[in-house]
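Structure tokens please, single chain.
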Amino acid sequence: MTTVTREDFSCAAATDESAYRRVTVPVLRIDAGPGPAVALMAGVHGDEWEGQAAILELWHQLPGILNRGTVYLLPAANAEASLAGRRLSPNDGGNLNRAFLGHPARGYTESVAAALEAKLLPRVQALVDVHSGGASLRYLPSSVITRYGQDALDPRLPALARAFGLPHCIFFRGTEAGSMPAAASRHGVLRLSAEIGGGAETGQALVDRCREGLLGCLNELGLLDRELARPDPPALYDLDAPAATLRAHGPGVFIPGVELGQRISARQRVGRLIEPARPDMPAHTLLSPQAGTVLCLRAIARSDDGDCLLQAAPALPLDSLSSLY
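Here you go.
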């Protein structure tokens, strides 16, 4: 018999106008008997909507279809940022994906991270943590594998990325001890992520792809009994390589000349930086630092020094993942 319980928690988020204000983070626990415990999470950054919408749909659907195990659903892990539609916490400007610091919490964002590390991560064996480009970026829908530190490759990760069902898989290397990958590593939790959409907008098609990806992961982990066609392995892209990211070297308005998913060559013209308020200033032509597929584009035209404008990398077979570790 499936049981459903709320396991919300709240964190202090005082302001000048409300000394004892608290923010509640919604958590739903669905228990269908013996089996793995898995967390599905979104909204670590509040302006990343695809995962939040998909997990909200599962909030209502999953109790009727879960066959075994336990699932924790967190559609808005940073509830305050989600309510404000902002990447960072409005209360203290904190980045929840950098707040798992392991010391006594100093404010709202670190309190949320501390609660997640104390109340959630010790209870689960796997975590799927969905992100997107948020307001400033758009991503080609991709699963994401992040290696933290010197962690060994978990042999279950390629199968989980394949089960997510997207044709692209991004690889990053994580080094920051306050990140979610670091926290998952400390607790021995298998973690897959995703980058789906962005640009401060979303659509039902992206939400559907995210929801089906999450269900595919639960199926792969043995919590569902779905008859699914086995998707082809996704192509793998190393976005941690320095040449994968093109950044602005000065202010301007970014006019991209390529599209997400487009294959480009090294030194290809991929856009311009212009300054309409300074018509005598020549446009700055932007060249791709390497060949590959465009996986990420800046969604905000006005840009400044250091902003990520584009990410591109060549496609690798998924079975080459071990060579990146």
